[in-house]
Amino acid sequence: MTGGVRWGILGTANIARAAFLPGLRAAGAEAWAVAGRDGARTEAWARQQGVAHAVEGYERLLDLDEVEAVYIPLPNSLHKEWAIRALRAGKPVLCEKPLGLNAAEVQAMVRASRETGVPLWEAFVFMFRPHFAKLSAWIQDGAIGMLTEIDSRFSFRIRSTANIRLEPALGGGALYDVGCYPVHLATRLIGSSADAAAVSGRRHPAGVDETVAGVVEFPEARLLFSASLAGPADTFTRVSGTEGAVVCSNPFHPTDRDWLALTRGGETTLLSAGDGRPSFAAAIEHVGRVVRGEEAPSFVAAETSLSTAATLDRIRGAPGFPA
After folding, report:
1. 3-state secondary structure the chain
2. Among 80, 91, 97, 134, which one carries the catalytic annotation?
3. Which of 85, 95, 100, 296 is the most exposed place for a label (fewest CB within 10 A)?
4. Active site residue 80
5. How far is CA 60 from CA 105, 196, 274, in A?
6. How far, in Å, CA of 232 to CA of 155, rounded?
7. What span, in angstroms and rounded, lies between the C-alpha atoms of 172 and 166?
8. Is the dihedral of CA 207, 14, 103, 107 positive or negative?
9. Which domains does the chain have, with CATH numbers?
10. Roughly what angle, to the nearest 10 degrees, separates helices 130-140 and 180-190?
């Protein structure tokens, strides 16, 4: 891994182990340090996951000169504080989604990025992968005519009542955890935030939205979405236009089994959505090239996250939101 960017990880969340670290290794970067609140547990996690150094306390990691970029998989309620601290420490940040709990938090994070000149990315890593570039090109080139509707769902089942996704104080709930994906996809493809939303769903006894679905109106198109923490694993999406449609079996974290299908005029073009690599690899490579001065930053939060945050606020504020 010589020459790879040295990363620090704030926290020992499952997604860091299961998704970020495989992507980091595939990208040729280095897991230099991980920080946690419990020193012994953090050291054990570092040994198990092959991370070079373990430190007790998030601030101590940000003080390490060796750390060149920071990944934040902390609970949603902690994203704003620690992303801003990392930016002010001069560390480029890849922060888990949703970037903040509301548009005001996201605006504060973007403002810190602009003031420091340090880039901030929200970890919707599908934007960096070839299938999203192809989907975007089809739409921009008019392959489906004028974009009119996106129908997207993301669900899975939580088995444990101790899961932090069920904690209201930590920013839990289906919308924040998986519903943000269809929303972000829509704001990227449509190019704006929403005007209105009508939603319904079911509230979990813990006090978060367990399921939520609805219609979100944008200036020139609409999003039909559903999100659930109590359903089968599902990420199906259909993007429709006046002349055709694109169906994606899994636009968010595709494997080599997933596909894109463009249908227009009775003809269908079928492409693989996978690229044979872990989901995070392309995003981590991009951050590395930016840190090394080899590439200008793309898909930074200042360009992509504000409209998503505003749309999530619109959905959460709609009558019928189950929280």
Report:
1. CCCCCEEEEECCCHHHHHHHHHHHHHCCCEEEEEEECCHHHHHHHHHHHCCCEEEECHHHHHCCCCCCEEEECCCHHHHHHHHHHHHHCCCCEEECCCCCCCHHHHHHHHHHHHHHCCCEEECCHHHHCHHHHHHHHHHHCCCCCCEEEEEEEEEEECCCCCCHHHCHHHCCCHHHHHHHHHHHHHHHHHCCCCCEEEEEEEECCCCCEEEEEEEEECCCCEEEEEEECEEEEECCEEEEECCEEEEECCCCCCCCCCEEEEEECCEEEEEECCCCCCCCHHHHHHHHHHHCCCCCCCCCHHHHHHHHHHHHHHHHCCCCCCC
2. 97
3. 296
4. no
5. 24, 43, 38
6. 6
7. 5
8. positive
9. 6-125+280-298 (3.40.50.720), 126-275+308-316 (3.30.360.10)
10. 40
The two beta strands, 209-217 and 222-228, are antiparallel
- Tens of pLDDT, residue by residue, the chain (323 residues): 335 899 999 999 999 999 999 999 999 999 999 999 999 999 999 999 999 999 999 999 999 999 999 999 999 999 999 999 999 999 999 999 999 999 999 999 999 999 999 999 999 999 999 999 999 999 999 999 999 999 999 999 999 888 999 999 999 999 999 999 999 999 999 999 999 999 999 999 999 999 999 999 999 999 999 999 999 999 999 999 999 999 999 999 999 999 999 999 999 999 999 999 999 999 999 999 999 999 999 999 999 999 999 999 999 999 999 98
Q: Say which residue the tokens 């602009």 belong to.
A: 114
Of residues 47, 44, 49, the one with CA closest to residue 15: 49
